[in-house]
Structure prediction request, 861 residues.
Amino acid sequence: MNFLTFLVENINYLGGIALFLIGLHIVVTHSNLIKRIMGINIMGTGVFLFFVAIGYVKDGIPPIIIGGEPIYINPVPSVLILTGIVVSVSITVYSLALTIRIYQTFGTIDQKEISKLIQEEEYHD
Amino acid sequence: MKRHITNAFFIILFILLCYAVYEMPIDHTTDAPSYNEVVNHYIEQGLNDTGATNIVAAIMTDYRGFDTLGETIVLFSSIVAAASVLRPSKKKEEVDEHGR
Amino acid sequence: MEDKIVKTMTRMLLPFIQLYGIFIILNGHISPGGGFAGGAMIGTSLILYTIVFGLPKARKKFSHRAAEFMESGGLILYVAIGLIALIFGLPFLTNIEAGFSLGEPGKIFSAGMIPIIMIGIGIKVFSTMVSLFHILIEEEIS
Amino acid sequence: MINQLPILQLLLFLGMALSIPLLRKRRFNTTLRLGFIVLCLVLISSIFIYIHVISEGPILYYFGNHAQRLGIEFKVDAFSSFFTMFIVILAMIIYIYSSGDQTEGIEEKEYGRYYILFFILMMSMFGILYTNDLFNTYVFIEILSITTCAIISIKRKKDTYTSAFRYVMLNEIGSLSYLFGVALIYMATGYTNMTLVYESISQVWQTFPVNLIIAISFMIVGLGIKAAVFPFHIWLPDAHSSAPSTSSAILSAIVVKVYILVLTKVLFRVYGIDVLEALNIPVILMVLASIGMIMGSVFAIAQKDVKRMLGYSSVAQVGYIILGISLLTHDGLRAAFFHILSHGLMKTALFLSAGAIIFYKKTRRINDFDGLGYIMPVAMGLFSIAGLGMIGIPLTSGFISKLNLGLAVLELESWILLAIIIVSSLLNVIYYLPIIISAFLKNEKYHYRLETIEKTPKGMLIPLIILGVLIIGLGVFPEPIMNLIEYAITSLQA
Prediction:
C-alpha cells in the first residue's frame, strides 16, 4: 500500500525522471542529428519538470499576492526554470544552425554516413 | 545485443533515481525541506521589499536579478554563435547590410 | 503562401497579438507573465508575419539594423539599471534603496526598477527570437 | 570600493564584447589594442583583489543588497582570485598570439565575431569562479559552453561542424546532468547558496543519504563530461583536431581547467570533506582518474595527427589533476592546483607551436616532423620544451607537479596509485620523445634546405618565448607559486 501512495503522490518526479532518461536514451542511440536535438529537448523538459515539481504544494495557488492567507506554491523553482528554458532554446537554435551547415556540406544528416564520408576523406589524403 | 545492455542500463538508472525520490517526504505540503524560511520571506516580505505583487517577477528581476542578466547574455551569445555558423559576415566596406 | 485569406487574416490579427504581448510585458510584475512571455508573444507575431509575407517584406518591417540595435540595447539597458545602484555605492542591481520609486502595489509604475527591466527583457527576447528565425530562414534562400 | 571590483571586471569584459560591433567602422587593430587594454586592466584589478583578499579575507558581495539567503552572492577568496589571475595571464598570451596570427583558418572578416565570443567566454569564466550560488554557476556554465562551441565552429571547414555538433550534444548532456544535481540538492536542502547548502547538508545527509549521493554523482558525471574526464572524453580529440589552434589552446588549457575548478568548489565548498568521506565519493573519483591517466596516454600513442595526440594527452593530464583532488588531502590539492598551472602553460605552448608548425609545414602527421628543429627553431624549440615538461624532465614545471603528486600519494601509502602515476609518465615518454628526437636529431631529409628558416611573424613569436620562459621559470623556482597555492587551499577548506 505504501508503494502505491508513493507512486501516486510523486508522479511528477517519476515523470520528470522518465523524460530525462528517455531523452538521454534518444541522444545516445539515434544517429539522425535532428532526432538527437529533439532528444536533448526532451531531456531538458524532464529536468525542468523535475525542478518545478519540487515547488509543488497541494492546493497552493500561484504566488500573486492577493491579500488573505492562501497557501502559495514555492516560487523559487519556477523562477530558476524560466532561465533554464531560455537557455535550452538558445542551445537548440545553435545546434540547428550547425545541422543546416552539416547538411549543406555533407548532404546527409545521419551521423553514421557522415563518419563514413570523413573516413573516406582521411583515407584519400 | 548492445541495445539490450543500453536499455537495461537506463532501467537501472530509473530505479536508482526513483529510490532517491523515495526518501523524500511524500506529502507536498509547506513543511517539505525545500519550503523553508527563504520561501516564506519571499512570500511575506516580497511585496514590501520590491513592491511587485507577482512574486515570481520580483524574484526574477530583484532578488535573483543577476541570473536574468546572465541569461540575457546567453541570448546575446546565441545570436553571435548562430550568425557565426550560418551568416558569412560581409566585407566591411559593404555598407548596406553589415553582418553581425 | 500566396493565399489571400491567410494574408488578410494575419494583417488583422497581428496588431492584437502584439498589443497583448505589450500588455503582458507591462503588467509583468502585477499579473502572471513578464518579460519572457510577452517578448515571446511579440516575437511569434513577427515570425508569423515573416512566414506569411516572406523574408524580404519582413526584412523591411524588422530591419537588420533594428535587430542589432535592440539586442545590444536590451543588454546595455539592463547593465545601466544595475550600474545606477553602483553610483550610490550600493551593490549591483539594488532596487528600492537605490532610489527607484516603490509606488503603490498593483499599479504599472510601481515596483521600482522591475517594470523597466521587464521592458528590457521583453525587447531582448523579442529581437533575439526574430533575428534567430531570420538567420535560419535566410540561410535557406541564399 | 574594493568590493565592487569583481563585478566591474565582468562588466568590463561584457562592455568590450558589446563594443566590438560598434568599432567596426575603424581599422581592426584599434579593436585589438582596446581588447589588450581591457585584458591588462582586468589583470591589474585581479592582482589588486588578490592582495586585498590575502590580507583582509574574502570579499562577500550580495547582489541587490539582499541578505545572503535571499539573493545571489559573489564570494571572492584566495582560491577564486588566484585562478582568475592565472586565467587572465594565459588568456593574454593566447590573445597576443591570436591577434598576430594570420595562420588560422578563420577568415579575416570573421575576426570581429571571434573576439566577441572570446570576451564573453572570459566573462563567464570569471563569473564561474566568483559566484557562490549553484544555479548561477549553471547559467555561467551555459554561457561558457555555447561560446566554446561557437569558437570551435567559427572555422568554416567540413569536419569542424561535425565535431562542434558532437561537442554541443555532449556539453548539453553535461550541463543538464549538472542541473539535475542542483535540483536534487535543492530538493534536499532548499537553498542554492553554497555556504547555506554546506551548513544544511552537514545536518541533513543522514536523512537523505541516497539523494545526496546521486546528486553529487550526477554533478561529477556532468562536470566530468565537460572537463573531458576519461570515460566521457569522446568529444575532445575531434574538437581539437579541427578547431583553430588558438581555440583549442583556450579550450584545453583554460576551459577544461575551469570545469575542474567548479568540481573542486562543489566538492569542497558544498559537500565538505567529512561528508564526502562518509559517502565515500573520493573512491569514484580515484577510479575515474587512474583509468583516465592510463587510457588517455594509451590512446595518445596510437595517434598520427599531432592535434589529436595533444587532445588525448590532455585527457591523461586531466586524470592527474582529478587524482590530486580526489585524495582530499592538503598535499593532494597542492599537487593538483600546481598541475593545473603547469599543464595550462605547457598545453598552450604545445598547441600554439603546433599551430605555427602545421600552418608553415602544411603537415599534421607526426612522422613528418623530422628536421623541423632547424627549419622552425622557435616553434619547435618551444614544442620540445613543453613536451619535455609533459614527460616530467627536471627543470620544467611538469617535473615539479609530478613530484608533488607522487609525494601526496606516498603520504597515503597507496602504492597502486604511485604505480599508476609512474606507468602513465612512462607512457607520456613514449609519445612525446619521438617527436622531439626526430625534430632535432634526424635532419638528413631536410639537409639541403637548412638555410631557409621560416620567419614566424613577431606577433606569434613573443607569446611562444614568454611561454617557454614561464615553463622553465616555474620549474626552477616553484616556491613563490607554491605559497600562493597554500593560501588558495586554506581558503578553499575554510
Notes: Residues 18 and 93 of chain C are 29 Å apart (CA to CA). DSSP finds five helices and no strands in chain C. Chain C touches chain D through 15 residues (CB under 8 Å).
